[in-house]
Amino acid sequence: MLKVINRPSYRSILALYLFSQIPIPVGLSEDEELDGISGIVCLQTALLHIQQLRGRKKNRTAGSAPPAHLTQAFLDLENRAYWAAVVWDTSNAMMLNLRTTLTSGLRGACAEPAWRLTSGFLVGSFQPKVEQWLKDGVEITDQVASEIIAAAGVSKIYIWKNIASIKEAMREGLDEDTVLPVWGNVLAALDIYKTSFTPLLNACERKLHFLSQVNRLNWYQVSLHYHLGILVLVEALEAAQRIDLLPDISEQAQDSEQESFNVLKFGLDNAYTLYGPGQGPPATSPNLGNAVDPSRQQFAISLVSIDPNPRYVADAVLLMDKTVGRQYKEGNIKVETYSYLASILRSALETLPQSSKYVQAARHRLKDTNTISSP
User: Fold this and answer.
1) Would you kindly state where each structural domain of the chain is located, as residue ranges?
2) 3 state SS of 28
3) Alpha carbon distance 26, 172 (integer Å)
4) When comparing pLDDT for 293 and 76, which is higher?
5) Are 208 and 216 in contact (CB under 8 A)?
6) Residue partners of 160: CB distance under 8 A and separation at least 6
């Protein structure tokens, strides 16, 4: 492991990222955890490797004759790897209250080339297509749905970046002259999603059962992560006692409090089919066409079960539980409604990998809060 940490390479970066995603298993003692290397340390090290490799690339390409192996295809792959790392970095910053490593924090939020390109894509190159779809109507095919969901994913991570920046501003207790411009960027990012992608994702939702399972999974993930971001933002504003800012996002907050349950329920009720190894030719064989190799065992499991970010699902469940619990105590929902919503949250946590210590801790927290009493 030390060789991976001390040797910057894309192979090391991938290994560190994969290791960081492995959940701490149930039964591992605290001493054993302390003796090991945490997931966050692995991920932060991977991000530092990315920075080093990007610096070397700039030095290599600065001369008049770059090395022969630096083909355009290689540079494109490096750029893709960098964007993937930016997504990891941004997600960690928002969820774990960290500063971003690869891009500037609140004082330079969205000023780097990666974020300028993101903003340019959302309000520039992709916008004419959005306007045409919204004006003339759009026929949701698998290809169109894939485009919409992928672009919505870019918009979602742009929102997460701005949420991470406003959380940093509030966490450090900066003055209003610094906080308010950052808050304005948050509202602008939310407005892009609301005006451009919410109507299109709603159109995809009406056709979900006719789309491929990959598109259904991607729609579920993008939608859940968007609502998770809003719930995290609301919690951060409440924790920082910035109640004065909550009215600016009251519509989004109310929508996320309700729609997050619909998205989670969709993830529980819809299955994704996986195929085991088989003796016959692969499914892509010309002899089979689109048919499935009958010798390959099939596994149908819910979208929540195979969510690549089970920790985010657990975090969303806990925030949703907090929201619905508050509504019940205020008398806004009846006891049977509260019980029904609580059962959805329990089912979600029970569907996640039970070997994860984090998931088990979330289940215990949910059990402690789900004691029904009179409002």
Assistant:
1) 106-269, 271-304, 309-375
2) coil
3) 35
4) 76
5) yes
6) 90, 91, 94, 225, 229
